[in-house]
Write a structure and sequence with these properties.
Layout (H helix, E strand, L loop, with lengths): L7 H10 L7 E4 L6 H10 L4 E6 L2 H13 L6 E5 L5 H4 L4 E7 L14 H14 E11 L6 H13 L6 E5 L11 E7 L1 H6 L4
Parallel strand pairs: 1-2, 1-4, 2-3, 4-5
Antiparallel strand pairs: 5-7, 6-7
Helix pairs in contact: 5-6
Length: 198
């Protein structure tokens, strides 16, 4: 019998399905092997745009190859830069941003996302989201540095203004303490009405 409860990655996709539409702009903050980039490109259609970031050239080459195979390369801007530089490349008004933290599967496991740059990227992402927009963060804790990054993300979401951000964090008590978990943050309409900071 299949598990009823989806993986954090699949759950992130299910949530993004609820908000991302044809013509929207989206961000893959950790392109990796291009799975989320491809998914986002399929969702935004010919009139939308996806911005995909990775510090590793090899990751972007694999992502580009995956997009070409589906004929979707024109929908995506590939950016070789850390996600903490989002605002240098992306205009405000994005509908969705997706993060898959940790290391590149099949790559050098010493190259990982880190708490400082991840939190900087999240802060910029939340500024760039339009009201109703959604950010998803899949946090992996089973590698060196993963536990600390997970703690930093959890602390970050606890300090957000609850009137302006609707936030979930998944917990699977039956799974390993090192199992990945999902954080999702949606900007509420109150943010647009009141303005202000995080």
């Amino acid at each position: 019998m299949p598990r009823l409860f989806p993986t954090p990655v699949l759950l992130a996709h299910l949530l993004v399905n609820q908000v991302l539409r044809v013509g929207d702009s989206a961000v893959d903050a950790t392109a990796g092997n291009g799975h989320d980039t491809l998914y986002l490109a399929q969702r935004v259609g010919d009139t939308g745009k996806v911005y995909a970031f990775d510090v590793q050239r090899g990751a972007l080459l694999r992502t580009a190859e995956r997009l070409r195979a589906e004929g979707l390369e024109n929908r995506v801007v590939l950016i070789q830069a850390g996600h903490e530089r989002l605002k240098e490349f992306i205009p405000a008004g994005i509908k969705t941003a997706m993060f898959n933290l940790g290391y590149l599967p099949g790559g050098d496991h010493r190259i990982i996302t880190r708490p400082g740059t991840t939190i900087a990227a999240l802060k910029q992402t939340l500024d760039l989201l339009e009201p109703g927009g959604l950010a998803t963060v899949v946090v992996y804790r089973g590698h060196d540095g993963g536990k600390e990054e997970g703690e930093a993300v959890s602390k970050f979401i606890q300090n957000l203004d609850r009137k302006r951000w609707d936030v979930i964090s998944t917990v699977f008590p039956s799974r390993s303490a090192h199992a990945p978990f999902l954080v999702a943050l949606q900007k509420t309409g109150d943010f647009q009405k009141e303005g202000g900071s995080l």
